[in-house]
Amino acid sequence: MSKSKKQRSSIPIEECEYDRVSSLPDSIICHILSFLPTKDTVATSILSKRWKPLCISVLTLDFTDHTIFTEITTICSHIYSVLLSCDNTLPILSFRLKCCFRLDEPNNFTQLIIAAIQRRTETLELNMLFHTFDMKLASNIFTCRKFTVLKLKLLILST
Asked: Where does the F-box domain start and stop, copy by copy (predicted)?
């Protein structure tokens, strides 16, 4: 028998099957989940009944899409569904959107970002190649007093 098999067989079964993550408090699990992209955070809700409400308690939303020329209506509907499922009594600590759009309907995008701003977002980071946003969105972004961090990259302002 190899040395590694001997070591494994000497560990009591109870110790091997102990789930250390499940013993953590919800607040710590939510903090850990806040470092994941939102897509992965939502995917954890299928792990168990306990995990389902945890993903809606994560206040860091990271929508990073590396696909160039993604259809905006698909992304907007996905982000809206996540925003609606989050606890609306708490502010969003961080909202990151990084993707590339061919923008056919700028109103969808504008309404989405305004919805995130209305949720008292503290950090807003938009990194979007080929997107032109309108003055309505610009005025909402630049007059919002809740932001502690504002990062805008690759955006083109239109009149």
From this structure: 18-72
Task: Quick: pLDDT tens for 78-102.
Answer: 888 888 888 888 889 999 988 766 5
Measured distance CA(78)–CA(90) in Å, rounded: 20
CATH number of 10-56: 1.20.1280
The whole-angstrom separation of Cα 7 and Cα 149 is: 50
The position carrying tokens 């979007």 is 128
